[in-house]
Amino acid sequence: MTDKKQLKARIRARMAKTGESYTTARRHLVGPGESPAADGGWRLHGGRHPDSAVITNILRNAGAEITEPLVFVAGGGLGAGYILWEWKHDDSRTLVLGFRNQWQYPRRWMEKTLTRLNVPFDAHSTGGAKGAAQRLTAELDAGRACVILPDRYHLGYWQLPAHLDGRGGHPVIAYRRDETGVFLDDRNLVPLRVPRERLDEARARVVSYQNSLVVPRPGEPAVAEAVRAGLADCAEHLSATSDSFSLPAWRKWSRTILDEKAAKGWPKVFADGRGLAGAMLSAWEEIEPVGMDGGNLRDLFADGLDEAAPILGLPLGGLAEEFRRIHGLWHGFAEAALPESEYGRMRELTATIRESIIADGIDPEAARAGRELWDLRAAADKAVVDLDRFADLSKRLTVIYEAETAAIAELRAMITG
After folding, report:
1. pTM beyond 0.85
2. Mean pLDDT, the chain, whole residue set
3. How many other C-beta atoms lie within 10 A of the C-beta of residue 289?
4. I need a labelling partner for 43 at 20 to 30 A (CA). Which of 16, 188, 247, 258 fits?
5. So where are the chain's domains?
């Protein structure tokens, strides 16, 4: 037991220091992980990104030989998006960053990706909580795994404070139930059980995808056709001129950081230096794989390019290496935004919550970490922070924008040529 606790502490420390996912941090410390754990007839394979992981894990549990990087590519691969939210009720600022194709449309992305892979599915949604609960029960009792979109706050295990009630969530798999709870696959490696009442509330909370339910009926996926279509989608989508939902979003962000006149300019939004710590922590959480959404995903896309190359007969290896380099550029931005020397404890607590979900399920230690984390965030948001780092962050974003623009142009020429 002592050895296990020591290993957990080492993994969490590495996650906090490097921003790595649990799986990557563990592999660096002790080598490859064990075989996937079984919970009844379901195998818990883990995963890197919520959206691609749910499809991959359903297909693999049905016997298909497919990897998450290829599923991610089939879905259109990368996206780009930036929003700065200002919340008056708690005087906070939060960054929302989009790194997946169609990042603002989770259900649309899911259905598009399943269709490309030639995986039939049933899709349901209803405003009635009773009917939604009955439908989920019927599907689980029939042995069919379901993709649902619950609100993170109501799920409970992410240890979020009440002011984040209704801010949304990401897809998870519901794969079995007992009399009072439902077992979820949220890239965890041990069983994760949520009380049924809490899950039903979480599913009903967000109006835009209230009680959403997607039930794939997997067979053998059409991988080559899906991957080719996904790469073409990625190249076209990120070649668009939108500064909200395509690569120009990074250029817009780099300029906004220094713009003293724009309403959303950082010198104006953070004029008194307050609220910046919370915004920077939200950026670190979204950019690094240690966060809830799998990070900037440029490394996952690179792995997908390597796996797609022999399938499509295309020389994608150079682009794969370039996107790994770009992944490193994003890591550098995150480190500059939230340096460990200043915010090490908040990073450590974030890693503690993530590691606990993956390796322990619902753990009292994570609840304590959550309370401390949000107390620290509240205190940090009230502190005056030096704004001198803005110029450095802007420059880093410009470099990322230029690198991604060139890489996508090369991908587009390769796919269309």
Report:
1. yes
2. 93
3. 25
4. 16
5. 2-416
